[in-house]
Amino acid sequence: MFTGIIEDKGKVVGLKKDEKSMEITIASSKIVSDAHLGDSIAVNGVCLTITHLTSEEMTVDVMPETVKATTIHMLRQGDFVNLERAMSANGRFGGHIVSGHVDGVGTIRSKRAVSNAVYIDIEVPKELTENCIPKGSITIDGTSLTLFKVTEQSVTVSLIPHTYAETILGMKGIGQQVNIETDMLGKYVLHHLRKSDKRQSNISYDFLRQNGF
């Protein structure tokens, strides 16, 4: 479980790819100083497992489904990635509940400065915007952000200077893609409501009349 508060920007220093899977080596002395083999680590919002460690670097495996469903396959040696270690039980909950299970991919359509903030408009598949509400939470490349605007096919978020500088969102340009995870609690509620709508109710007008309604 993660919170969407990015701890470091790591640098991709090694990539091994086969037809469907990947192995990525990332340099981040800050992260590996308190990491262990088998730990979960969010890389651009994707929950991965550490399989190898040195004093400066860590290696993670990426399985075929993750390669297919996220932007991970677009990484190149020298790229920077957002990193967050799994939340400790006694840690502060600074963002929101993030699973590290990416729902889909969005595309940056515009970036504009508004006073001390940068507004980013992101084109998102309609099935994801259905899980979004204004002032709700969303995770973009692993970063917990607040939704300021939601349309049928896009979302708008605002970044303060610290977030813009300390995450890779400040480095990404128009047309580049980002990993999207919508709010976990909202997804569960929507899923439950959709299932409820499909159930056949036993309550009819005759039943209500017979019971005094």
Automatic annotation (TrEMBL):
Catalytic reaction annotation: 2 6,7-dimethyl-8-(1-D-ribityl)lumazine + H(+) = 5-amino-6-(D-ribitylamino)uracil + riboflavin
Pathway of action: Cofactor biosynthesis; riboflavin biosynthesis; riboflavin from 2-hydroxy-3-oxobutyl phosphate and 5-amino-6-(D-ribitylamino)uracil: step 2/2
Pfam families according to UniProt: Lum_binding
Enzyme Commission number(s): 2.5.1.9
Keyword Repeat: yes
UniProt superkingdom: Bacteria
Mapped Lumazine-binding repeat ranges: 1-96, 97-193
Keyword Ribosomal protein part of the UniProt annotation: no
PROSITE patterns per UniProt: LUMAZINE_BIND
GO molecular function: riboflavin synthase activity
Alphabetical keyword list: Repeat, Riboflavin biosynthesis, Transferase
One Gene Ontology term from the biological process aspect of the record: riboflavin biosynthetic process
InterPro entries noted in UniProt: ATP_synth_asu-like_sf (IPR023366), Lumazine-bd (IPR001783), Lumazine-bd_dom (IPR026017), Riboflavin_synthase-like_b-brl (IPR017938)
Gene3D superfamilies hit by this protein: 2.40.30.20
SUPFAM superfamilies with a match to the protein in the record: Riboflavin synthase domain-like (SSF63380)
Annotated Lumazine-binding domain residues: 1-96, 97-193
Job of this protein: Catalyzes the dismutation of two molecules of 6,7-dimethyl-8-ribityllumazine, resulting in the formation of riboflavin and 5-amino-6-(D-ribitylamino)uracil.
NCBIfam families noted in UniProt: PRK09289.1 (NF006767), PRK13020.1 (NF009566), ribE (TIGR00187)
Summary of subunit composition and partner proteins: Homotrimer.
Protein name: Riboflavin synthase
Species in which this protein is naturally found: Lysinibacillus telephonicus
Lineage: Bacteria, Bacillati, Bacillota, Bacilli, Bacillales
